[in-house]
Amino acid sequence: MTDTTAPHPFAHRLHGSPDSRLLYANQATGAELLCIPEVEEQTEHYLAIEHGDSADRGMWTGALGGGLGAFLLVMALIAYCYGNDQSALQALVVAAISISAPFIWEVLRPMPLPILLNRRTREMYFEQDGELYHSPWDGIAAATYSFGTVGPYTAGMRHAALEALLHHYGHPEQQVLINLGSPISKSLEMQLGFWEYLRTYMDKGPWFDAQGNHSESDAFIQSLLEVRKSKGQSVRLYWGLLKEEYKANNGRNFLSYGDLVLVLGSILLLPVRTLQNFTYSIAKRRARSQWPALVKERLRADGPASRLVDLERTAEQGGVKP
Question: Among 48, 106, 241, 290, which is 20 to 30 Å from 148 by CA?
Fold first, then answer.
C-alpha cells in the first residue's frame, strides 16, 4: 500500500501551484474515467501507452506509397491499356520503389517502445536508449499540473501534463520523469480522468464499465479504443452517415456538397491510411520483440509474478548487481 504519510516526491516541486494534484495509486481523485488516444493496447495482463514519435510511424510509407505509388499504378494501367508497355513498366518500377523503400526504412528504424502497466506484477516499465526503467504501481510517484504556452502565430494555450517517476533497473539512484501520454491540449480534468482510468485498470480490471465497476465483458473498453482502431476507416464512417441521412430524408435531397467532398476525399486517402496502418502494425510488432527478457516473460499469463524491485532487493542482499 502507498504510504501517504511520507512526503510526496513531487510535493516540493509543485508547492504553491494551484493547478496541480499529487497522485497516489490507492487514492481516488473523484474525476470521471477517461481514456486517451495514446492507449494503443489493453489486454488482460498489460496496458500499453504510446510514447515518443511512434504515432507517426508509417506516415512516409502512406504518403509516398499510398499517394504517389497508387497514382503511378493507375498511370501504369492506363499506359498498358494504350499499348505503351515500356511506360507502364517504368511506372510500375517507380511505384514499387516508392512503396517498398519507405516501408523498409520505417519498419527497420528503431521505434520507441510504449510505456507498459503490468497488472500481474503491479508495476510500470519504460525503456529509453536501451535502458530499462520501472516502478512498483503501489507507491508510485505521480502528479498532474497545468501549464501554458504562447506561440508566434497563436494565442496563449493551456495544457496539462501527467508525469510519473521511475528508476533505472539495477541503479535506483538514477531516476527518470516520464509523461503518460502527450500533455498537448489536455486539461487538468482530463489527466485526472486518465489517472482514474489507470487506477481502475490496475485495481478492478482488466475490463470495467463507465462507472469503474468490474465487468466480465470488454465491450466498454473496446468502445473507448474504437477511435484509435477506426483510424483510416473514414470511408466506412462517412458512408454510414450518408445512409442515415438517406433514410431520414426518405431518399430526397439528402446528399450535400460537403458530404460528397468528404466521401470522395476519404476514398482518395484510403490507400494512404491503409499503408500507414499496415506499416505501423509491422513496426510495432518488431519493436515489441526488443523488450528485455525480464519484461517479456512478465507479460505472459504464466510468467513470473515477482516484481523487478523484488529482484533488485534480492540482488542487493546477495551483494550483486541484478
Answer: 48
Residues paired with 161 in a beta bridge: 145
> Cell 495544457 identifies what position?
159
286 confidence band (pLDDT: 50, 70, 90): confident
Rounded Cα distance between 304 and 203, Å, is: 19
Over the range 88-126, which residues count as b (16 or more CB within 10 Å of their CB) and which as e? beebbebbeebbeebbeebbeeebebbbbbbbbbbbbbb
Residue 40 backbone dihedrals phi, psi, to 5 degrees: -95, -20
C-alpha to C-alpha distance for 87 and 192, rounded to whole angstroms: 59
- SS3 assignment, position 173: strand
Would the pLDDT of 270 be above 80? Answer: no
265: confidence class by pLDDT, cuts 50, 70, 90: low
d(CA 192, CA 219): 23
263 in Cβ contact with 242 (< 8 Å): yes
Compute the CA torsion angle 236, 242, 247, 250 (nearest 10 deg).
-150
252 backbone dihedrals φ, ψ, rounded to 5°: -115, 130
What does pLDDT average to over the chain? 86
Report pLDDT for 150: 73
CB–CB of 81/74 below 8 Å?
no
Residues 6+ apart with CB under 8 A from 293: none
Global pTM reads: 0.80
First-to-last CA distance in the chain?
A: 25
Letter string b/e over residues 245-258, b meaning 16 or more CB atoms within 10 A of that residue's CB: eeeeeeeeeeeeee
Q: Which helix (H) or strand (E) holds 172?
A: strand 171-179
